[in-house]
From TrEMBL:
Cofactor: FAD
Residues bound to FAD: 172, 174, 185, 234, 237, 269
Name of the protein this chain belongs to: ERO1-like protein alpha
Record carries keyword Oxidoreductase: yes
Catalytic residues of the enzyme: 376, 379
Signal peptide boundaries: 1-23
InterPro entries: Ero1, ERO1-like_sf
Membrane topology: Peripheral membrane protein
Chain's gene name: Ero1a
Length: 450
């Protein structure tokens, strides 16, 4: 009997030691593992893997893209931040100073020139000769047909539209959060993303975020186009949250303001445990968004290669150098070995495909209108720019035949991009490229966090 009890006690001891060891192993799981547990290998609906994107973006594309976006042509974006919200009236404006946007102001020497609002960028920020100014006006107002647009674009002729220097108004944490911020994303996901009519996706707003343990299941029931639409919006949301976590206000006193990486904020948005498994999927959707916009840039190369196209700023030497850099970047993009295959989109019955494409466009246009309901002006600025950039990318992907049939010289009437579309396209992709680069930084920062 004593021998039997001794054996039983020994077995229980072994079991306890094994469980204790497992507990220690679970405790040793790092925050990096919890956030990036699914962010590796091949992406859903794609033949590309995360590691290939990281290497291509971080070491070949990102540095040159940042240099391009610092140039005069790309750093100025015209936007109307005073447009009223078309969906509700009770907007609580963010009163924090970090929510404010610093616009450019028109020099006196240019105020008498006709149609200043049509200038590429000089009208509110720099001076230029009247002759060059008139050429710019004519060049950029010839083609502005928005019938094929995926966005509700601002009227840049409006007196409320102003040029903004994006480098002086960087996207970063502003303190804008809570019910108002949550309401924006709630409307986007609930009313503008495709989902089966019989399913109501549960929402929780503990951190102003949207969580759904059932989301992955109803996505499986959607066609590839509708699934892709959701993943694009989720990827955009994730990218914005990466920026806010990477440029967080860490210190604010009379002496200085210090911005930097906030790993706690990043964990709250992407940790697999804290987000009920949703966070890592959001990061995968960010990579999906990257591939979509990368594909659009590779498709639009012929438009920018045309000798008639110029990045006009009034500085001829700089304009030539910037076009050379732009084409260098686009050729690099073209060389990417594992581009997304958009031929799977709208490949079924022609009538159904046409209706689905139109639904796709209308849903996205509606999302672009929701950006005018954002109460933080700096958040509104970057939301409008990135939404228009993604809309321009979609326009390019759905205009492949029109791009192929463009004349080598002279005006292109079938396919055209306005300056607003060009600036938003590259800046939006620059934001996503920055997010992918920042994920590498967060991986290192979270290695030793438990």
């Amino acid at each position: 009997m004593g021998r039997g009890w001794g054996l039983l006690v020994g077995l229980l001891g072994v079991v306890w030691l094994l469980r204790s060891g497992q507990g220690e192993e679970q405790q040793q799981e790092t925050a990096a593992q919890r956030c990036f547990c699914q962010v590796s290998g091949y992406l859903d609906d794609c033949t590309c893997d995360v590691e290939t994107i990281d290497k291509f973006n971080n070491y070949r594309l990102f540095p040159r893209l940042q240099k391009l976006l610092e140039s005069d042509y790309f750093r100025y974006y015209k936007v109307n931040l005073r447009k009223p919200c078309p969906f509700w009236n009770d907007i609580n404006q963010c009163g924090r100073r970090d929510c404010a946007v610093k616009p450019c102001h028109s020099p006196t020497s240019l105020r008498s020139v006709s149609r200043l609002s049509d200038l590429p960028f000089v009208s509110h920020c720099f001076s230029a000769s009247h002759e060059e100014t008139q050429k710019a006006v004519l060049q950029w107002t010839k083609h502005d047909d928005s019938s094929d647009s995926f966005c509700e674009v601002d009227d840049i002729q409006s007196p409320d539209a102003e040029y903004v220097d994006l480098l002086l108004n960087p996207e970063r944490y502003t303190g804008y959060k809570g019910p108002d911020a949550w309401r924006i994303w709630s409307v986007i996901y609930e009313e503008n993303c495709f989902k089966p009519q019989t399913i109501q996706r549960p929402l929780a707003s503990g951190q102003g975020e949207l969580f759904s343990s059932s989301l992955v299941y109803w996505l499986v029931g959607l066609c590839v186009e509708k699934r892709a639409f959701y993943r694009l919006i989720s990827g955009l949301h994730a990218s914005i949250n990466v920026h806010l976590s990477a440029r967080y206000l860490l210190q604010d006193n009379w002496l200085e303001k210090k911005w930097g990486h906030n790993v706690t904020e990043f964990q709250q948005r992407f940790d697999g445990v804290l987000t009920e498994g949703e966070g890592p999927r959001r990061l995968k959707n960010l990579y999906f968004l990257y591939l979509i916009e990368l594909r659009a840039l590779s498709k639009v190369l012929p438009f920018f290669e045309r000798p008639d196209f110029q990045l006009f700023t009034g500085n001829k030497v700089q304009d030539v150098e910037n076009k050379e850099l732009l084409l260098e970047i686009l050729h690099e993009v073209k060389s990417f070995p594992l581009h997304f295959d958009e031929n799977s989109f709208f490949a079924g019955d022609k009538n159904e495909a046409h209706k689905l494409k139109e639904d796709f466009r209308l849903h996205f246009r509606n999302i672009s209108r929701i950006m005018d309901c954002v109460g933080c002006f700096k958040c509104r600025l970057w939301g409008k720019l990135q939404t228009q950039g993604l809309g321009t990318a979609l326009k390019i992907l759905f205009s492949e035949k029109l791009i192929a049939n463009m004349p080598e010289s002279g005006p292109s009437y079938e396919f055209q991009l306005t300056r607003q579309e060009i600036v938003s396209l590259f800046n939006a992709f620059g934001r996503i490229s920055t997010s992918v680069r920042e994920l590498e930084n967060f991986r290192h920062l979270l290695q030793n966090v438990h």
